[in-house]
Amino acid sequence: MRYWLTQSIHYSQFTRKLKPLRFFIVLILLFGGAVAHSQTAPSEQHTRVLIILDCSHSMWDRWQSDAKIKVTQQVLLKFMDSVANQQNIEVALRVFGHLNKNSYGTRLEVPFEKSNNYKIQSKIKTLVPNGACTAASALSSSLNDFPPLTGDSKEDVQPRNIILIITDGMDDCDGNICDVARQVQMSGVIVQTFILGIGDKQDFQHSLDCAGKFTYVPNEEQYTETLYNIFRLSEEEARVVVSVNDETDHLMEAMLPIALYDSQTGVVKYATLYSIDSRYTPDTLTVDPLVTYDITLFTTPPTVLKKKQFKSGRINRLNITVEQGSLRLRTDGRRTNYQVPQYPVLVYRHGSSQLVGRQLMGESGDYLAGNYDIEVLSYPTLRLENVGIVGSSATDLTIPTPGLANISKPKAISSGAIFELKEGVLTHVCDLDPNKINERILLMPGQYQLVIKPQNSIEYRTVRTKRFQIESGQTTNIGL
To answer: Are residues 230 and 110 in the same domain?
Structure first.
């Protein structure tokens, strides 16, 4: 079969607008309930910070002006005074290495609750390093320290759960801290894990970046400063201006769904619709700067950007270039005395079984520039391979108008099937309806063969075949 391809090189994607309702429906189908919570800005959430404090025996070692544990107690006591009045921050304390000598125990000493500042300070004052390092066990147990949402209040949104580990070295820890940290992060409960390393730098020969964002503290002054910076980051937000441009670097007017996923967990964090206002100005999206994002712009097929980070206190600009053209399929316009349906059209990446889009005959769909294989779900299925779509242009495909097979069957015929006959090979097209005496079936132009069987017959010799030809836009009467 032949098809005709025409391209309008002057097609302007920049002036093409897509219906907002269509994308709103797509967005709801894609993200379901996630959309309802996705636009909550970090400033509207409250933050939970779980401090996991190393109280292993090595914390008695001298560092700067005193023992590591003494310096840490002084820093944390002053710090808890400063966060006591913060309404949107809750702090809890888990400690490891303090229970018994040579013990690998860990315990949540002060859970999350309102106004627990005095309890945390009281516990910090009484800590005595006594055991071995159990950071991996403490981190593994930390997921149970964050209370689940009750769901009783409409204003109750997912808090930003953060872990802060303070340690003087993890070389002697039980377990693999990297594997444990990966499992914790993949749970989706924790936004970010920070690790604050104190003591001698030689105690941190092995990188702890695998377990979270690691910061080595060389002295007491930076100890306090680093601690404040971590808590400041837990409250901040990042502003992102997303610009979707065509290949000529013009802003696209098309309204497109866009989703930001946590790159570590694969869980959607934000879902919205990209658009520009009447002054061709993109909107500003507010996101959590602690998360590294994988971004999906729902073009067809989707445009994906990996591992994007956004800084707080500034405008982050995310420019996405999309080279996109349109595709439309039509019949050759022959006049018929029967109605030609709008066949469904499936679009695949060329040479792949990956379905990237679907549309109806006569409709125009937008696709990224590239080569595609197209299936028209007619009888038989019409396949067009390696069809090129060029950016900022329209690709029009013209297919033949189907012909009509008008089949009259005697009552004695109970069942049968239609096959396409091409180069001596039969391809099944459809079955006949045994309950109908007359059938009208639209078929693409070509040669066909009927295989029919009389009612109640099981003998091969009673099966009959009949060949017929279908012409474009014409009716072929077939009597049996």
So the answer is: yes
